[in-house]
Amino acid sequence: MLKKNEESHSIEIPMELEYKWGAGPHFQKFLKGLKAGKILVNKCPSCGRHQIPPINVCGRCRVEMGEWEEIGPKGTIFAYQLVAEPTYDAGLAGMRDVPYGTAHIILDGAPDASFFYKVNELDPQKAKIGSRVEAVFKPEEERQGLLTDIIHFKVIEE
Amino acid sequence: MGEKVAIVGIGQTEHRYHRTDINAEEMVNIAVRRALEDAQLTIKDIDAVVSENMDFLEGHYAPDCMLVDGSGGQMKPGFRIQTGGTGGGSVTGAGCNAVASGVFNKVLVIAWQKHDAVNTNAAISATREPFYDRFTNVGASSLFSSWGSRYMQETGCPEEIAALSRSITSEGASRNPCAHVRRRVSVEEVMNSRILVWPLRLLHMSPTSCGCVALVLANGQLAKKISKKPVWIKDFVIVHREQSVYRGGAVEVSPDKYGIEVAVQKLYKRNGITNPAKEIDVWETYTPSSWADMPFMELRYICEKGQAWKLIEKEKTRFDREIPWNPSGGVVCTNPIGASGAIRVAEAALQIRGEAGEHQVSKNVELAEADAWGGSHWSVMFLLSKSI
């Protein structure tokens, strides 16, 4: 250990690395769905649950996943969070502006899985369990086949 | 299990926010020396060294190789495990298996994290699944906030209860010289701390800490010779399931169970536990936020669903009361992530020995639960006992 009042010597090395990942056939279908303004997921032929996001197998039943279904774009809030502390957005490589809302959303057609995303509501009283929401997509020409093709979910009255 | 396994040596560092006064290898060496001294063994007596560290938070490759001199692993067999938040539990389990199998007689288990190298939240976000999770991940605080908001709406639990739970935990931490955030905090202080993700406030959340813990494990025959007070690893269960946010839900939507629930059920059934609140004398759980205290107590069947907040309201979770819940101050006061699961085992073992010092619980401890959680919804759950 250092002696009292002895200064500690640290070095700072920033790192910049570029990574490239393959999405795989199932995830790719989901991302291409977003580009087309749709939320496409697959369904387990054994337990019937939907996978958000999809891969080829159901880990619970250990069987190959079955048919594809379009779910949403409307849904119901399962849990809401109001983010007040800026956090790092690793998708866009920068700090996020705060405050903003997020929620676990049960999309219509998939009662057994939640979709976690931004909600443009800052009042927890208006975004409670059971509040109805709808996905707002970017204009078609701006979509890139990324999760961010959905701008946010908006709270709707029904 | 094959051979019986006991903990015969325990050593940990004083866990702190920054340890730029020493490097990682030197920090690990402190805990290793303390564990060996506690077991009254030397590194020559150790057959294998197994370690745990989340290397993406350290920013360098193969940390187990880098610090082989400090760990005592030079020219010995061993391996490193990295399973995220459960890492400290996984490596203790792996060390236990290495002894139980009869392959090694005495194994040194090391779990450590040095959080002062990088912004932890950014590092965790930056290493998540690239297509889905990185765009949405806010870190662990968002998950506990979900549980908090749902728990309040479903059970009528007031916001102050999580603050009270944090205040109760701070008493244990203030009595534990190894704890990181040792300050006593009042309910008002917690309620006045800034909101990170509503309803979760700064003081509801674990800090990022630097620290290391080392355990010496020995087989049954040797353990009785080495130690006057061997602490037996009676049983442990490891459960893995898919990520939290990833593929389905951080908050449980589908009928599938939490990993904790599956681990708890297996552990209780195998060991004939029917009334955990009475039969288990002390709990050292991987609870990184005070908002997780209530669901985690309920998932362990300490009480009925929706009732845990009433136990906290009556302060029954204090270290000197009926259900000593994280008497060391727990993860919410000390979180060198990769080490935290193994610190739980170390702290529960100290309670069984009756050597936890100022934070020793007032009950006689025969049976303790210690666990690691994370990953997410991964669970490694131990039952430790005084006798075998």
Strands, helices and their partners?
The complex is a heterodimer of chains A (158) and B (388).
Chain A: H1 25-35, E1 39-43, E2 50-51, E3 57-58, E4 63-64, E5 68-71, E6 74-83, E7 88-89, E8 94-95, E9 100-107, E10 115-119, E11 132-137, E12 150-155
Chain B: E1 5-12, H1 24-39, E2 48-52, H2 55-58, H3 63-66, H4 68-71, E3 78-81, H5 87-100, E4 106-113, H6 120-126, H7 133-136, H8 140-155, H9 160-175, H10 187-192, E5 195-198, E6 200-201, E7 211-219, H11 220-226, E8 231-239, H12 259-270, H13 276-279, E9 282-284, H14 290-299, H15 308-313, H16 330-333, H17 337-353, E10 367-374, E11 378-385
Parallel strand pairs in B: 2-3, 2-4, 9-10
Antiparallel strand pairs in B: 1-7, 1-8, 4-7, 5-6, 8-11, 10-11
Helix pairs in contact in B: 5-17, 8-14, 9-14
Low-confidence stretches of chain B: none
Largest sheet of chain A: 5 strands, antiparallel
Give the CATH H-level superfamily of the domain at 5-119 and 208-226 in chain B. Thiolase/Chalcone synthase
Shape of chain A: globular
According to DSSP, the number of beta strands of chain A is: 12
Strand order of the largest sheet of chain B: 3-2-4-7-1-8-11-10-9
CATH class category label of the domain at 5-119 and 208-226 in chain B: Alpha Beta
Number of strands of chain B: 11
- Average predicted confidence as pLDDT of chain B: 93
Structural class computed from helices and strand pairing of chain B: alpha/beta
The low-pLDDT segments of chain A are none
**Portion in strands of chain B:** 15-25%
How far is the first residue's CA from the last residue's CA of chain A? 65 Å
Could you name the CATH topology of the domain at 5-119 and 208-226 in chain B? Peroxisomal Thiolase, Chain A, domain 1
User: What percent of residues of chain A adopt helix (DSSP H or I)?
Assistant: under 10%
Percent of residues in β-strands of chain A: 25-35%
